[in-house]
Each structure stands twice: as C-alpha cells, then as structure tokens.
Amino acid sequence: MKQRLVVIGAGMASGRMLEHIFEAGGDFDVTLFNAEPRGNYNRLMLSPVLSGEKSYDEIVTHDADWYTSHGVDCRFGESVVKIDRENRVVYSAQGGVRYDALVIATGSAPFIIPVPGKDLPGVCTYRDLEDTNAMIAASRPGAKAVVIGGGLLGLEAAAGMAARGADVTVIHLMGHLMERQLDPAAGYLLQKDLEARGIRVHCKGATKAILGNTRVEAVLLEDGTVYPADLVCMAVGIRPEVRLANDAHLDVGRGITVNDQLRTSDPAIFALGECVEHDQQLFGLVAPLYDQAKVLAATLLGQEAAFKPVQTATKLKVTGVDLFSAGDFAEGPGREDIVFRDPGRGVYKRLILEGDQLIGAVMYGDTADGSWFFDLIKQKKDVSDLRDTLIFGPAFAEGASANPLAAVAALPPEAEICGCNGVCKGRIVQAIEGGATTLDLVRAQTKASASCGTCTGLVEQVMALTLGDGFTAIANPPMCKCTDHTHEDVRRLIKSMGLKSIPAVMQELGWKTVGGCASCRPALNYYLISDWPTEYVDDRQSRFVNERNHANIQKDGTYSVVPRMWGGVTSPAELRAIADAAEKYSVPMVKVTGGQRIDLLGVRKEDLPAIWSDLNAAGMVSGHAYAKGLRTVKTCVGSEFCRFGTQDSTGLGIRLEKLLWGSWTPAKVKLAVSGCPRNCAEATCKDIGVVCVDSGYEISVAGAAGMDVKETEFLYKATTEDEVMEVIAAFVQLYRENARYLHRIYKWVAKVGLDWCRAQVEDPVNRHALHDRFMQSQSVYQADPWAEHATTPADWAPVADLTLRAAE
Amino acid sequence: MNGFIDIAALDDIPRQGARVVKTPQGCIAIFRTADDQVFAIDDRCPHKAGPLSEGIVHGTSVTCPLHAMVFDLATGLSVGADEGAVRRYAVRVEAGRVLLDAEFLLRRSAA
Ligand code: SRM
Ligand SMILES: Cc1cc2nc3c(=O)[nH]c(=O)nc-3n(C[C@H](O)[C@H](O)[C@H](O)COP(=O)(O)OP(=O)(O)OC[C@H]3O[C@@H](n4cnc5c(N)ncnc54)[C@H](O)[C@@H]3O)c2cc1C
Ligand code: SF4
Ligand code: FES
Q1: Distance (Å, whole) CA A203 – CA B15
Q2: Residues in chain A, pLDDT under 50
Q3: Among A295, A301, A496, A693, which is most buried by a count of CB atoms within 10 Å?
Q4: B69: nearest CA partner in chain A
Q5: Which of residues 5-64 of B touch A (CB under 8 A)?
C-alpha cells in the first residue's frame, strides 16, 4: 500500500521537496495543506509584482495541472490546526487526514511590533500575495506610505510602492540601512540611491505608536516625529511559525528542532524551511532551504543524505540598485580588510580576509565580481598570492603580476583614470611626455584628478611609470594614513560636494580604512560642524576624550573642572559655590590658572555630572578649558578703576567672551583686552588681542605664547565696542571656515597671509556675511554642555560593579 | 561552567564608544563598535595606565587617550610601532544584553 505523506504548508521549501520526490519516481499519496488559498508560487518574486515589473501569474511555480498530474490532494485555504501524534492524524477545520509521514513546512510569520495602533486597518506586513495586493491598492500616486524596517524586505516594499508613485518613508531603528548585510559605508550609498528615488529614510527611528481612529493616519516616533500615512507596512523581521509543533510537544527551540535528516523529535514527523532550527541555526533565505528540500526528499525515499548549511549571499531586488553581501563581514581577531572606493561611480567594495582566506565580501554599485568572490569564500581558497590585486576581481587576480604599479602599467591607453573628467591613461602619458612633469601641470593640461581628486594616486602612478626616477610625489602630506587627500582638499571637497556626514566623506573621498582613525575622525567632525552647523549632528564618539567628557583628563584618569569666569571677573557667591564644590567632592587641588580663573583638579569621572550640576545651580557654565574652541578672554581692570585706563577693557572682555563662548574652532582660541598700551592683560601674545587707546580699539591677531612665542600683528582699528565685536566675530568665522584642524590662528595666518584676512574683514558686505554665519552657528552651539549632561549621571558611572559579587 | 554575567544592555554602551565595569582587579572596558560588535579589555593602558575606555574607537581599534597608542580590541595587541598588550575578556551579546565572562573573578576568589 502507498505511503500517506501529508505536507503542511505549500511554500518554497515544500514545493521543491515535492518536485524532487516526483522526479525520483517516489510513490506517495500526498495531501498538501496551505493556509493561503492557493498553491505554491515564488515568494521571492512578490517584489517585482509589487513594483509592477511582473504579474502574479508569472510567478506561479506549480499550477493546477501540475498538482493533478502528480495526484496531489490539494487543501488550499485550509489551515492545519492540530497534529495528533498518537493516532498520526492532522486536523483542519474540515476534519482529519491520516499520515504515515508528516512534513511541517509552515515557513515563518512576520513579527509585529507591539505598539498602540498595530491592529488598525491599513497596517500590513510583507509576506504573501494578500500583503502585496494591499500595498498595490494603497500605492496610488501621491498616497503616503510608511515602511517600518529598513532591511531587505522593508526596502523592497518601499521601492515597489515608490515605483507606483507613492510617497514613501522608511523608518529604521538602526544607524544605517540593512545593517545585518551591509557596513555603514555601503549603507550610506544605499540610502543615497533610495533618496534619489524620492524615498525618505529615517534611521535611528523608534516607532512609538501608529495613530488613527478608524484606520491608520500617521506614525509617531519616540523622538516626536510624525509621518502621515495611508498605509503602514511592518517589515521588522520574521519568526519561525512553530505553533503546531509546540502544541504537539515536539522539541522546539527558536524553530522546530531537526537533525541532519530533517527529522524532528518524532520519527514520523519531518520539518523543513524557515520554521526549523538546525544546529542552533535559523534560515531566512532560500538557498539552504533548497538543500533541505533535496535532503528531505532523499530521506523520505529511504536514501542516505545529510543536510549541511552553506554560506548564503544576499542581493537586494530593487531594479537599479546593485548590492551584494556574503559571508562574514564583521571585524574580528586576525581579520584584515581590503577596501576599494570609486566615488565617481558610487562604488564601494570591501573584502574581509582571515589568514589566507577570504571570509566575507560587501559590495555596492558594482557587483559583477560578486559570484567570483562568493566562490572563493565557499571554497575556502588560499588567496595569499592574489592578495594585492584581489579587490580588482578575477580580471586582475588571474594575471600573474601582483604589483599595484604593474596593474597600472598593464592598463591599456584608453583605460579611464579620472572618472570625473573622463581622462584616459593615454592622454596623461601624452601630457607627461610633452613636458608636464608635476601633478599640477598634469592637472592643468588634462584636468585629470582636478575634480574630486580621488584618482590622484593613480595619476601619480602613471607619472611614476612614465618618468621613472625623475618623479617625486607631492610634498603636502595627506591628512592621515586613511586617505591620500590633504586637509585642505578635504575641506574644499566637503563644501563643493555638499558632504554632510562622516560616512559620506569617507565614501565620496575614497577613505582606505573602515572607520577612520583617531586623527582624521575629530578633524572631519570639526569640518562638518563648521560647514553645516544647522544640518550636521555632532558625533560625540569622534571627539577626543576632553571634548567628549567636557573636562581635561589628567595623568591618573581623573579630570579637571574649570567653570567660566567671564573676563576673569568673579563674585563672592561664585567663589563660595566653587569652595563648596571643592569640599563636597574632595577636590585634591584648587588652583588659579594662567587664564584668570579657577581650576578644580583631580575630580573623578562619575562625580562630573554632580559637581557641574552644583556649579550650574550657582549660575556657572563650562569654561571649555579642554576645547578646540574659545578658552578665555583675559582682561585688565581698565578705565573703571585704573588711573591709566582709556576704555572699559573689563566690560569689553566680558562682552567678547559672551559673544564667542561655545563656538568650536580648528584649535584653541584665546583673547585678551588691555585698557591701555601698558598691556597688563598680555593682549599682544594672544590669538586675538585688543589694546584700548584714547581713539578706540586696536585689534591685532596671530600671537602665541606656547610652544612658539610670537607677537600679534595689527589687523584693524575700531572706534566702537560694537565694531570690535563684529570684526572679531567675522575674523573668528574666517578662521573657522578656512583653517585646517589643529592649526592655531598664527599658523593659519602665516599660510594665507594677513593681507588676505584683512581684506576679508574690511569689506563690509563680506564682514556682515561672516558675522551672520558665525551667529547662525552660535544659535546651535552656544549652549552649556553640562546643562544636558548633568541630567544623565548614570552615563558617567561604571555600567556595572562586580566588586561586591566577588566577595560573595 | 558558565561564568557569563549580565552586565548591561547593549544600548547602554554608545556605538564607537565604551563603558566601564568595576571589578576588584581593576576596571574592565566594554567596547561597542559601529557595527555592534562588543569587546572587553582591561581599562588600563600598558604604557602609563591611560583609561582606554576613553579612547576614540575606529573600526575594531582604540587609540589611548593619553599618548595615542593604538590597540586592536579583538587581540588586545598594540598596533604599529609601540609594543604592548592588554588582557582580553570573553563577552557576548544575547537578546540585547551584554554578558561578560566573569570566571576570572571566581578563579581569583577561590585562590
Ligand atoms: C590649567 C593651565 C595651567 C595653569 O595651571 O595655569 C593649563 C593647563 C594645560 N595646558 Fe596650557 N594651561 C593654561 C594656560 C596656558 C597658557 C597661558 C594663557 O592662556 O594665558 C599658555 C600659553 C599661551 C598660548 O596658548 O599661546 C598655554 C599653552 C599651552 C599649550 C601650547 C599651545 C601652543 O599652541 O603652543 C598646550 C599644548 C596644546 O594645546 O596642544 C597646552 C595644554 C595644556 C593642557 C591642556 C595639557 C593637556 O592637554 O592635558 C594642560 C591641562 C592640565 C590639566 O591636567 O588640567 N597649554 N597654556 C592654564 C589654563 C588656562 C585656562 O584658564 O584655561
Ligand atoms: C517579499 C519577499 C522577498 C523575498 N526575497 C528573497 C530573496 O531575494 N532571496 C531569498 O533567498 N529569500 C527571499 N525571501 C525569503 C524566502 O521567500 C523564504 O525564505 C522562503 O519563502 C521560505 O520558504 P518556506 O517554505 O520555509 O516558507 P513559505 O514559503 O513562507 O511557505 C510556508 C507556507 O506555509 C503556510 N502555512 C503556515 N502555517 C500553516 C498551517 N498551520 N496550515 C497550513 N499552511 C500553513 C503559509 O501560508 C505558507 O504558504 C523573500 C521573502 C519575501 C516575503
Ligand atoms: S606647561 Fe601646561 S602642559 Fe606642560 S605640564 Fe604645565 S600644565 Fe601641563
Ligand atoms: S597611557 Fe596609553 S599611550 Fe600612554
């Protein structure tokens, strides 16, 4: 008698299994249940159906004829509700069916985040044809759709609805899209491509509630943002559909536990697909499920077979977006990265090597070599011989030579070197042979590397090849080993290319490392703050410890606390508050600084919020004694008390400090205002100094008294305090916009020339514009950091204390 | 035996940053990278005891805040010209919680 095989779920995995069984001539009486009112179709292809590139009929894999010809008893639209293991019967609402062998292939169920409003009409998931049709119906041009979840499924849903004209917003909890498959750089490129299609992307967005009365109207995020929505698609993940198995008391972990033969804890019951857990692993892509189908078919036919999970590779099925990720791309012990970026073409490639093996690959923009890399990963091939040129793909790697210069030498004359200006190698060689022996001359004559500059290295290699020993590379060193660009070039390109985040700079300017280094990150963070004060969000983790913790770190890991003392003037109340704080927090040393204020030295990190909250309560704010920013404005007593004073130097100093405090600058900025040429405030060795005279105020700049000692040089003579304020704000802004990071004013002025600076601030239109830009930045940055940080003291203490536990 | 102890939520640690766990043998720095990998090493630079938890985290390395030695978080070894190493501890993330292998504490107290 024929064996009775019952299958629960007509999905991708069980469909493939039945094909194998019938192809091998297996003789079973098959009953196939499916909760969906239809047979098997290619679930992966729902996305092209959603976007309108395919119809449902085109993605059906098994039609009615197929089932009939194989004698399958189809129970479509009929959910199985119970398995009776003792009597070997499965039940649906319509009754029971006996089995000799049972296959559970119930796939998985979309995860619904438990927020208010999740059950409103207009909220869907993305799993089956019903979901797809709901999205198609809602995607009229102009309709508003919100997709929660920026992973593979969410983005395919978003792109599909956008292709139909809907106005789509993607809300993603993590810092970048598809964080499980992509690193931040590739995530950035993907976001850029999607935004270019009109899809709004909101990363780091946590959904708080779905709003609406009788159906969805909007989505509310934790940060208060509200996005209007006619439809909300939740695509935040899946969990294996294990309810039947649980009720039947089969072994279930996260999925239904199966062995290498796909057998569950009941020998007559098998399971495959997304509902299973094998060797503690779950599955969410079809490739391993097809292997399971082959193994289970063999098992049911009485043959030997064992399932071994294979590496999987991911591609996003959005037309025009090329993305590939495979293997393991997390960083880890002994792992090395090879990174290649071609900003002109929006290409990013990263290979991850462990020892002699390639273990992972992430690619964006150009994925042509994806399968070749994937193959190397799966074969665990020794790639040490190919290493230097591996990233260029099979075309290069299979050639014998592994020298990067040789790679350039091998390029044909028509190979494009400069993508921006379309300059080929032959043209560059021609120019060099015609006498262009420096990079500048090559740039001038061919425009190669004159735009985004990322091909500078290549152009130099062509020059080295053509000129031989006659060539030396450019003198101005690159910013750090992460890039070939100089600070100046990076600043210029941030502005001209409109780059507004650290990942954007790293991608567009071809950074060679994954996350930069301790030298370039603070510089980039500063450049972005300075150039886009209202758009860029300060990245605290890219700041040096002192600026991150708003205090100077000491040699023993404690910190110093320096409250601002405007113009060096204090009051009994302030002194009392400082004294109280010093006693309360057992400050080991209280010292008067060279900057006319008081330093509390040796404060423990976890006490910083409390001591600052006490000082804040007494009206004091951070003195930024740690900052690449305004430090102090020293003053002398001036005309208010001194018999020689010509102007109110103390009052002007206080006004200047109140104008400038809180601003970030390339390096520290110190000012002083003296009431007469006797210069008791030492104004002539500061970054900016004001010396008062009878007829007004002499502003001089570019002094120093640290590692170099230098007298200031005259910049401008003002007649009123207001004029002083405007000129100094404008000059500081000029410095902020143009200097390279860590260059004090005197170093920067030596480079650009004092005459140029003077011309900029003397011109009234220019001066006003600089002043306005400074004030715009101050509207964001002139805030006491401790007003915010003092409210979260827990962030400053250890996260856990195990000293007690050990004593147990 | 299983010596892993729950010490914090993953989100208590800023990406590209670190938090500190106090132990009788000194502080341990728990780092979180941009892509949510977590590492634990002694919070004490072998050079002059700089608190590594306060360094800038880039990729899977950290630069000491005091004199800029760079350490690979995964191996605990210094990168570049300076030689040195810091002790590592096993740490893992489960269901959004950070678990630290605290067996070193038990060993110590048993001794
Ligand atoms: C506290 C103070 C010394 C004091 O006890 O008086 C001080 C302390 C430090 N100075 Fe200073 N400087 C202090 C006034 C000065 C002065 C005098 C002045 O401002 O009138 C100078 C010379 C003037 C100048 O800057 O041109 C000065 C020139 C320097 C330099 C050399 C800068 C240069 O460009 O050449 C450094 C090194 C640096 O910034 O890279 C430095 C760096 C430092 C650092 C921050 C070193 C560090 O990075 O850890 C010291 C912090 C000690 C600590 O553990 O907290 N300090 N430092 C003074 C704080 C003034 C304030 O109230 O903010
Ligand atoms: C839109 C979309 C795009 C995708 N794109 C890709 C891709 O590009 N690449 C890739 O590798 N993977 C992709 N996937 C994932 C892939 O589709 C799944 O891994 C695969 O379909 C899982 O197969 P399965 O047989 O385990 O489950 P399914 O195909 O989900 O089949 C399970 C079936 O069981 C039925 N069922 C559940 N419970 C019962 C019950 N109690 N009684 C009766 N029937 C029941 C369900 O209705 C369903 O029809 C995509 C998924 C979606 C939704
Ligand atoms: S001169 Fe400045 S940097 Fe040098 S030890 Fe004194 S405080 Fe520190
Ligand atoms: S203490 Fe770490 S480098 Fe000096």
Answers
A1: 14
A2: 399-402, 452, 806-808
A3: A295
A4: A518
A5: 5, 7-8, 12-17, 19-24, 27, 30, 33-37, 48-51, 54-61, 63
